[in-house]
Amino acid sequence: MRHAPRGRSTGAALLHDEPLERHPGDLRPARAAHLLTVDPTPVAGTSLFGRARASLAYVPGLDGLRAIAVAAVVLYHAQQNMPSSWMPGGFLGVEVFFVISGYLITTLLVAEHERTDRIDIKQFWARRARRLLPALFAVLIVTMGIVGIGGSSSDSLREHVRAFRGTWVSAWLYLTNWYQVIAGLDYSDRLGRPSLLRHLWSLAVEEQFYLVWPLVMWFVLRRFRHHLPAVGVVFAALAGVIALVVALVYRSENLGRINFLYLSTPTRLSGLLLGSALAIFWRPWRLATASVSRHGRWTDVAGTVGLGVLVWAFLRWHLVVDGVSAVHGYDLLFRGGFLIIGIATVMMIVAVTHPGSLLASRVLSARPLVWVGKRSYGLYLWHWPVFQLTRPRGDLSLLDPSSPDVRWGWLPALLLRLLVTVVLTELSYRLLEVPVRSGLGYARSRVLAAVGAVAMLVTVVPTASSFAAADVLADQAACNRDPAACEMLAADTEPAAAPTTTTEVPATVGVPTSTQVAASPTDTSVVPSATTVPAPTTATKPVATSPGGTPPPAPAAVTVPVMPIRPLALGDSVMLGAKGRLEAAGIRVDAGEARRFGKAEGLIDRYRASGQLGEVVVLALGGNDNLSARLIDIILGKLTDVDHVIVVTPQVNGLPKEARNHRLLLAARDRFPNVTILDWQRLAQSKLRYYWGAKGVSSPGRAYFWADRIHLAPAGQRYFTSLIVGAITKAVG
Asked: Is the C-alpha dihedral spanning 188, 273, 214, 36 positive or negative?
C-alpha cells in the first residue's frame, strides 16, 4: 500500500489543535477505508507491531466528532446565563475533546517511537507551539485591547478590569485553571460579566498534559515497550481511580470543592487517560490488516451507542442545579459521570477510526462537520469573548438588566454572535493558523511580527492604565487611593442637608435612638429595621447634571464602644471598600475580594487560636456564593461561644442568588440566639439609584455605589459603616 508522506499530513490534530489542511501529494482521505497506511517493510523497533509501519493519516471522522463537541460547548455558553436552558450539559463537549486529545497525542508518540525508535520531545513541543500559540496570542491581544481601551469609557467593562487581569496573565502561562481555583472564581457563578478568558481553563489543562505526557511516554516506551497492553490497562485503571477519588471528595453543597473538581488538572485527567489507554490497544496502522477490520458494523453499533449517550448527557445533565434551599452540584456528573462521557467518546473514536465504519465515512465525515471540526480550536477560542461582549436581554449575568449589551432577544442575538465568531475564526484560521503551521517564509514572518508588534503597542498603554486599578472598579481605586479628593469633591457639589423632620437614623450619629428603636418592627433582631430606612429628603427626579437624582447626605463618622478586644469584621470586596472607615470607627477588618462564605471557617479558627476572636464578630459575606442552610450552620456553629454575631445580608443588585441567600440568612437567627441580622440587602435598596456612572450621580464623592451597584462608593462607605457601628452599639447595650 502507499506510504503516507512524512510531512504535514501525519501530524494529526489534537483536542484544541486543528488538523492540517491537505497539501499536494498528501494522502487523500476520500473514504474511511483509505485512511490507514501500512508498509510491509520492517522498521527498527517494530517487533511488537509486526510488520506494519506506524503511521497515522488524517481522519476526517475525528473532525466530525470534534465538530459535535464544539457545537455543544458553544450552544451551552449561548444559553448558560438565560432563565432556561435546553442544553445544560453542553459543557461536556470539553470532556470529549480531552479524550480525543489523549488518544491522538499518545498515538502520535507511539507511532514516532515505532518508526524511529525514539521520541523527539523538543520537536513535539515545537509542533504544539506552532499550532496552538498563534490563534491564542491573537485572542489575548484583542481582548486586552477591548478591556484596556473600553475600560476607560465603559462602566460595564471598567468593572471587569480586575477579573480580566488575573486570567489574562495566567493565560500566557497556561495556568488559567489554577488561577481560577486559587482566586475562588466560581465557574458556575452568574454574578456580573465573567472574564473574557475564563474558557481558557481547558487549554491550560491540555497544555500541562502536553508538557508532561511526552516524558511519561518516553519512559514507558523505553522501559515497557514489550508490555504495552499492561500499560494500557494501567492507564485505564488510573482513569477509574481518578473518577473514584472525585466521587469520594465531592460534596453536593460545597460549591468551592465542586469548582476545584471541575477545573483542576488532576481531577480532569480521566478523559485524557482513557484516550491514552485506547491508543495503546487501538493503533490505526494495525487495523487494516487485523481481523477486526472485518467487523466494521460492530464498531458502528458501538459508535452509535456512544453518540446517543453524549447527546443524552448534553441535553439532560447539569454542572450545578438550583435546589429548594440552595444551589448544589449535579450528583451523577461527579459520581462517575465524567467517566461515562469518556467511555462513550472512546466508543465513538473506535468507530470513526475503523477502516470499514459507515458512521465515519457517511456521517461524521460529512463536509459541514469536517469544516467545523477543522476550525474547532478557533471557534472555541473566539466564541466566549464574543458571547460575553454581546449579552442579550434576559441574560442573568447583567448587573443592570435594563442595559444589555445587545438589545435583542436570545435567538436574534445568537445569530449575531455566531456570525461574528465564525468571521473571526475564519480570519484567524486563514491568516494565522494555517500559514504558521505550514511554515512562514522570511518576508511573511516579518510582516506578521510587525503587525503583532503594532497591535501590542496600540493596546499596551490604555491596558496598563486600566490594569493599574487596585480594586474592583477603576473609580473606586482612585477614590480609595485619595479619599480626601473625593470628599472635597463631595463638599463642593453636595447641597446642605434638609432639616431633620423624619424618623430616620440621624446622619450625624448613625446609631438608633430609643425613639427610633421603638418605632421599629417588633422583630428587633433586624438592625436597623426596614422602617428606619431614610427617605430621600431632596428631589428624586433625575436632573441633567445628576441623572440618578440628588442623594441624601451620608452619615458622619462614628465609633463603637470601647471593648477589651475590638469587634472583628470578616467580609468580601464590599466590606473591603469601607475598610478604612470601619477601622477608623474602632473595628478590626479582615476582608478580601471574591471571598466566599465558607472562607470564614478557617478565619474564625485562626482568630480563635490566637485569642483574638473577641465578643463581637461581624460577617459580611455571601455575595459571591449560592448559600445553603448547612453551610450557614457550619459557620455560625463555630461562633456559638461569641456573645454577639452580626450577620450582614449581601446586596448584589437583584441577581437571582440574592433572594435565596437573603431568605436563608434571615432564617438563621431562629437557630442561633446570639445572631443579629443587619439587613443590608433591604437598607441598600433606596440608595441604589445613587451610583457613579453615566446614568447615576455626577460626582464619585456623592455616590453610594460604583457602576455595578454592589461595591461601595464614598457616601455608601460612610452609610455602611454607620449601620455596622449602630448594630454593634445596640447589640452590646
From this structure: negative
Q: Distance between CA atoms of 164 and 35, rounded to whole angstroms?
A: 44
H helical segments located in 327-441:
331-332, 338-352, 358, 367-374, 376-388, 410-428, 434-438
- Cβ atoms of 660 and 627 closer than 8 Å: yes
Task: Classify strands 327-329 and 320-322 as parallel, antiparallel or unpaired.
Answer: antiparallel
pLDDT digits (tens, 9 = 90+) for 390-440: 989 888 777 666 678 888 888 899 999 999 999 999 999 998 888 888 776
Q: Yes or no: say if 370 and 393 are a contact pair by the CB < 8 Å rule.
A: no
Three-state secondary structure readout of 669-727: CCCCCCEEEECHHHHCHHHCCCEECCCCECCHHHCCECCCCCCECHHHHHHHHHHHHHH
Cβ-in-10-Å burial (0-12, 13-18, 19+) of 453 comes to: exposed
How many CB atoms neighbour CB 146 within 10 A? 19
Task: Count Cβ atoms within 10 A of the Cβ of residue 503 and give its class: 0-12 exposed, 13-18 middle, 19 or more buried.
Answer: middle
Query: What is the pTM for the complete model shown?
Result: 0.69
Q: Where would I find the beta strands (DSSP E) of 613-674? A: 616-620, 644-648
Domain range list for the chain: 34-81+94-467, 514-732
Where are the extended beta strands (E) located within 529-681? 568-571, 588-591, 616-620, 644-648, 675-678
Which of the listed CATH numbers 3.40.50.1110, 3.30.450.20, 3.40.50.720, 2.10.109.10 matches domain 514-732?
3.40.50.1110
Tens digits of per-residue pLDDT, 19-75? 433 333 333 333 333 333 333 333 333 333 344 566 677 889 999 999 999 999 999
For position 344, what pLDDT does the model report?
Answer: 97
Gap between the Cα atoms of 156 and 397, Å rounded:
11
Q: What is the pLDDT of residue 454?
A: 61
| Residue 711 near residue 559, CB atoms below 8 Å | no
Q: What is the DSSP string of 284-315?
A: HHHHTTSGGGG-HHHHHHHHHHHHHHHHHHHH
